[in-house]
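To fix ideas, we close by showing one paired sequence and structure record:
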Amino acid sequence: MPDLATKTITTENVKKEVANNIYFGPIYPNQVIGGLTVPRFRTSINEKSLSRIALASAHKARKPSVILKDFLYLSGAKVGANGDLLAKNKITHIINISPCRNFFESKIPISLLQKYPNWKSPKYLRLYVKDRPEENIEKFFNVSNKFIYDAKRDGGRVLVHCWAGVSRSASLILAYLMNQYGCTYNRALNYVKKKRSIVEPNCGFCLQLSKYELELMRTLGIPIDGISGTKRKYDEVEFVDIINVNVGSVVEEGERNVFDWGTKGIFDPSTYRYNKMRKLI
């Protein structure tokens, strides 16, 4: 006869497992971005119904927020479902971290092709986490950074969208700006808020971004709370946030990237080395 206590514990474990996964659908197929495998995730169980809602309201969508001119855009799902806005802004790459499907991955409606004959189906990176503080969005930073970096290298334009364009998609864009331009989390957040005032990552995502900032700083050898980094090479270090540099400003050495991206195009604190700090003349 089975132990009643064991049976009770097993039942409770099952209930917890069901509760934890009640908002998740099937596991998304494997994706490889520039040699990086996308961490495992499940899609939303409401993907179909929410996709229909986004499509039905897509005509009400306003243009996406321009984070970096002619390159990086931020929005909610309605923009991701609006082919006219995507084509007008010449979007070539989309990071979809919403609970909706990839709207234009397989084909483009004939009506859109007639209006925009040169526009092609965007390249997608599909991700998903619930917009809850306990969710792990940091696990996607490397693959999303790589995806955006590769799009820029190829002369593309990237839209990052979640459901509302407030928390999840904003967090991925903040991680990219911190990584690519050496911004602190607060500086990147203030900059993005100027472009899209409703941006507000949830408290859990804020903590993960702050942790990510520390990882970047330690790799650069910048002292953190009196503890020197392991790779410090300079007596003085000055951050220059290229996204805040005025047009016409001169940048020493002509450097466009803070980090030496090597051949993979992403910054991994355990692998990549610091290239050159820049300062304005």
